User: Fold this.
Amino acid sequence: IAGAQWTQLNSEFEFISENDEHADVAAGDRIIDESLVDEALDHLQSEASSAEAEVEAAETIPDSELRKQLVALKTRLDSEIKIHNMPLCYVRGDFFDRPPHPVFALHNSLAGTGLNPSGLYLRDVFIWLPYLLPGCPKRFMCTCGSALSRNGFNDDPIARRVRHIPDDFFLFTNRFICDGRRVNEPGCGTSIQGTDPHILAQLPRQVQVAFPAYISPRGAVSKLMVRLMRNTFSHRHGAAPFAEMVTEVQYLSHADGELMYTAAANFYGQTGLKRFSSFDDPHGYAGSPPSAPYLKGLFTDVVSAHRIFIERDTATKPLTVAKADHTFHVLKHIGSVKGEQIFTAASTCMNEFEEARGHAIVYSKSLEHVEDMYEHMFEGLRASGNPPTQILYTDSPQAERPFHERINKTMTLNVVPVTQWTDLPPFRSDPNTITVSVSDSIHIEEAANEILQNLFSCASPSQLYPIALAIKAEHCADELSRLQSPSDILPSLRSILTNSSIIKIGHDIRRSLQTISQAFSVKDIEPSMASKNPSTLELAKYAKLKGRVDSPLASLHDLAGAVLHKRFDIPAPSTSWVSPSPKFLCAEIDCL
Ligand SMILES: [Zn+2]
Assistant:
């Protein structure tokens, strides 16, 4: 390429950088991050306080229909237990003590003092009396080791309101006490509710499963609600729409009652009756649907309590096929400090059953942050007897492969990497190529000088001179110390690198030049690369421009396959400085 062609090519690049929809050609050597949503997060702080306020709101108030129901129930249970040794609902084979269904409640009230809606405000009550349940121990034990005594029912509140659909229910239980006044075996004085996990744990498993609710200091929700939340929250149906759904269902339940009441009044020709209670009248229907912060808080409590089990389960899952990716989307749901995001990405690793096997919230996309996660996952595979990971899918395999192969040694065991070019005939160096391979600064200078001489004396303005420089990356300073001093910088080589009329063509040539500029302290390379018309030509970018490859970052292996239709295997980097490196380098140059 020379003169006009070069200008033409540069203007094509410019056109693309201005019209490139996905900016993948123009910004070839830069990874484009997905945009980060800077949504404000202000609801987290208020969660705890609003949950507390709601617990209070859910309490029954004196003289309300619900309080009357619970007071009457407590007295009735006492006498039922005296007669039957258990509540009548247990005799019937049910945990629920249910008020009559509205249809019968209305019909019954008609026979009494006239059609009355108050029976429609009552809720079901779940009776949980552990000492009367099948398979219960003779004595429940306290955490201190001595036996617990029964300590009657609760007074205030009599029962706990449990959030549920289509309507809340109450959970009624008894108390236990580790009685300090006992003569034989004085206890420690602890009072425990029958719904306490410590009591539940002393019941047979099949009975434990029947317990209907999750109780936390923030409140109580039914098992069904938590199951619905788990299923919906994990599919983007968050707490806010869930709370709206529960509210809607509870309002509809109230509307059903009101409809039955007014229709019955119409049917029986009754007039001048009491109005049906409004949904939220605490004396009447006392509807109190849970808010989104309340549900979110409770859900967090439930998941935190189960976390150890969830994690243990996760750690025993197989990971024979792994799928790893970073995302930026979930991070908007994670708290920030003064609007500054603490973490920028989440890395997730799924297994062959689409189960999350590892998840890390990280400061950047750099793989060093997820090293621990992978090590722990592989440790879990060994510990639980699962086979080692065999395949790993990622969106940038070229960049991530060395990392994964280093972390998981089993990945490379008995594996020959295959690409679409593997079956092509292998690339061979052109035997006519004259290779001059020197490793001494004086000879390098001589060779470079010869190129310059030929170049400027030659009649033809353009000629290709393959040049390869081997730099041992890790010990750059030591190995090249002779070349480091600016006075000793090989003037001819330097002018080849900086002269803008000599176009540097190569694979990942810009990065190579940057490396050289740093290693040799050749400061004037960088400005020449930054100029509008840089004297460099990235082969991969050019191949992309010509439609030969999809990515402007295509590897030399891909370029050789797509352009030359040859298989070019990039040799493993040599461990010694001298021997195979120059050989490899000239093969690479031939390939170019
Ligand atoms: Zn005790």
Remarks:
- The CA atoms of residues 126 and 171 lie 5 Å apart.
- The pocket of zinc ion is lined by residues 142, 144, 146, 178, 187-188, 190 (CB under 6 Å).
- DSSP finds 21 helices and 16 strands in the chain.
- Residues 23-46, 473-487, 576-580 have pLDDT under 50 and may be disordered.
